[in-house]
User: Which sequence fits this backbone?
């Protein structure tokens, strides 16, 4: 346990600082996710040695969860898949002049959830990881079905419309190579489509480009955001008090979801939002700019990021692309995660866990003062801001896979997203200049959900999981778990699903 | 016919096209499903939902929304509320959205020209066009704005993050 203080040595503190800053920047920028950023700095971290290197990689991972909400709140473009839900109320809060409050609550919720998940990680890692191992194919299917049902109920308004958009999202996710069977579907001989439709491109189009087109179509409808005084940038006492219950609920839910295979942070955020819609005292305000809609999902996605570390550190099982890159980093540094990690590399194990505490404090200290700076972005007139959003969307879509086909996808998704507003494929409450509504959101989430589920199954099959219940346990007993080669996804998959 | 019904027709046509395109993929058996099974199931589901949407369009939504308790209604600042949309379900009469249509065309042109002109030139032109359509007057200010936006994006993504922009 004394090895926990390894994180406080100057080189490790510096590595943690660089990792968290880089993670925040990556989270803020749509397109480049933590998995891709971690892969980019992997050669550098190897030179730093296992403890500092892994601390930096982990810093990028949870730093991105902090930063992901910024563009969701300010310009309605989610920085991360896990921040899509935050756009619902976050962007509306920004339009009301409460961007600062939303950003601050997002940072505080991330801190609370991140710290809780580290404590839980430290205490309960071996126990809960065993429970997660009991998941077999039937549980995977039930989990996927739960996600779809939640999506249809989450988005608000007409359930039929939401369900139609969820199905449309599932249809979009069938484009490209099926990761299980290897067959290529609906590509119409376009080479760029073989990797499938990029989630980043679809999201950037449906949210960002469609927003720009809608603003152009109805320039008068975009109500100017009121300039607020500095002290009003931060949440009021009432807003803070209202944030506490969803923050706590989101933390517990997110942590539990993080233990389950799949796109945990994304699912955790919309499970949290769904729960708030049922139990919150202010559930009637959700969807119109309620602080609960930011606090719950932001806490959930950060807690899920912490929860996802348990199966990685305890069993050597990466359940998300980001943890798969982390696993690759560990193996490259001759550190084998799994049951023997604590015995063979106690400094690495406790050093990484200790860095989570330090990193969460660093992120809060970094993010809260920047709230005022970021909040000013929301007050920039659309004629200056929107052209920038347009270029950001295109670059984000391209940077996801360095694929020109994704530029066509972002443009197409943008025009379709705008047409969806016109065709009322979103409930009226969300239509009037409040950003992309539940329709596009359901499409985006369903696509991400299904793709990530299938990619996760590939991870499961390749690591011996998913064949039958208890497969992981048998592997663990036989000593093979975590000692195999790093899990490889096909090109672009890591970057696509964070 | 209202916009919601046109939307439902669009979805139905999409589902039919998707089902036709998916016919080439084998279904195999339920025990060992082939690549055609998910497209068939999701295409049929979308078709059924589109029919449902067409049937209920224009009546269920207005009734349900007007029956909501006051707390569930959007805020006062919401233009849809203030214009009475929630109570009547009436489609707003709007002029043709030429600027958005031109922008959509410009985006298609941008995607086509990006590999030929490169990121810097094509993005500069895109920002100039979009800022003009957004109401930024004159040519100097759009040109300078475009230079700044394109330059920052290039430095951030190409130089710093190493993304090989075209």
Assistant:
């Amino acid at each position: 346990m004394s090895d926990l203080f390894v994180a406080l040595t100057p080189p490790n503190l510096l590595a943690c600082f660089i990792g968290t800053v880089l993670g925040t920047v990556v989270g803020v920028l749509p397109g480049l996710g933590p998995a891709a950023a971690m892969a980019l700095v992997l050669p550098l971290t190897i030179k730093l040695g296992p403890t500092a290197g892994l601390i930096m990689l982990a810093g990028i991972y949870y730093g991105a969860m902090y930063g992901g909400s910024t563009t969701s709140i300010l310009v309605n473009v989610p920085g991360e898949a896990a921040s899509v839900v935050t756009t619902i109320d976050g962007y509306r809060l920004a339009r009301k002049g409460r961007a600062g409050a939303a950003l601050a609550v997002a940072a505080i919720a991330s801190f609370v959830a991140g710290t809780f998940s580290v404590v839980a990680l430290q205490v309960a890692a071996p126990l809960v990881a065993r429970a997660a191992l009991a998941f077999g194919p039937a549980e995977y299917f039930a989990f996927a079905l739960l996600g779809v049902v939640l999506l249809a109920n989450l988005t608000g308004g007409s359930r039929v419309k939401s369900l139609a958009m969820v199905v449309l999202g599932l249809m979009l996710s069938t484009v490209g190579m099926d990761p299980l069977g290897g067959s290529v579907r609906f590509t119409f001989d376009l080479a760029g489509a073989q990797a499938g439709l990029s989630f980043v491109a679809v999201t950037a189009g449906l949210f960002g480009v469609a927003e720009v087109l809608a603003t152009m179509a109805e320039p008068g409808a975009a109500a100017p955001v009121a300039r607020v005084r500095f002290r009003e940038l931060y949440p009021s006492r009432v807003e803070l008090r209202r944030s506490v219950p969803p923050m706590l609920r989101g933390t517990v839910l997110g942590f539990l979801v993080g233990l389950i295979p799949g796109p945990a942070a994304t699912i955790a955020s919309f499970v949290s939002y769904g729960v708030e819609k049922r139990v919150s005292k202010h559930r009637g305000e959700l969807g119109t700019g309620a602080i609960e809609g930011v606090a719950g999902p932001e806490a959930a996605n950060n807690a899920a990021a912490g929860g996802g570390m348990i199966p990685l550190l305890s069993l050597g099982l990466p359940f998300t692309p980001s943890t798969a890159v982390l696993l690759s980093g560990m193996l490259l540094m001759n550190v084998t995660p799994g049951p023997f990690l604590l015995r063979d590399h106690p400094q690495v194990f406790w050093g990484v866990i200790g860095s989570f505490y330090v990193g969460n404090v660093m992120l809060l200290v970094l993010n809260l003062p920047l709230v005022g700076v970021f909040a000013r972005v929301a007050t920039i007139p659309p004629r200056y801001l929107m052209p920038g959003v347009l270029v950001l969307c295109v670059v984000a879509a391209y940077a996801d896979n360095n694929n020109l086909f994704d530029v066509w996808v972002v443009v197409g998704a943008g025009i379709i997203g705008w047409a969806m507003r016109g065709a009322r494929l979103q409930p009226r409450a969300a239509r009037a200049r409040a950003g992309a509504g539940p329709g596009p959101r359901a499409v985006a989430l369903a696509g991400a959900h299904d793709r990530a589920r299938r990619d996760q199954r590939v991870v499961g099959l390749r690591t011996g999981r998913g064949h039958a219940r208890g497969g992981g346990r048998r592997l663990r007993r036989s000593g093979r778990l975590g000692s195999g080669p790093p899990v490889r996804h096909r090109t672009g998959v890591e970057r696509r699903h964070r | 016919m209202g916009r919601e019904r046109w939307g439902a027709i669009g979805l139905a046509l999409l589902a039919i096209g998707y089902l036709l395109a998916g016919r080439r993929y084998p279904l195999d058996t339920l025990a060992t499903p082939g690549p055609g099974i998910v497209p068939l199931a999701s295409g049929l589901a979308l078709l059924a939902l589109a029919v449902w949407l067409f049937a209920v369009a224009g009546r269920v939504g207005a009734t349900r929304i007007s029956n909501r308790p006051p707390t569930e209604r959007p805020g006062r600042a919401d233009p849809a509320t203030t214009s009475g949309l929630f109570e009547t379900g009436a489609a707003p009469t709007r002029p043709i959205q030429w600027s958005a249509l031109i922008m959509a065309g410009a985006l298609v042109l941008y995607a086509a020209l990006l590999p030929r002109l490169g990121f810097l030139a094509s993005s500069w032109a895109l920002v100039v066009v979009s800022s003009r359509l957004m109401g930024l007057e004159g040519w100097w200010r759009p040109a300078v704005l475009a230079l700044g936006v394109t330059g920052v994006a290039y430095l951030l993504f190409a130089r710093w993050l190493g993304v090989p922009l075209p």
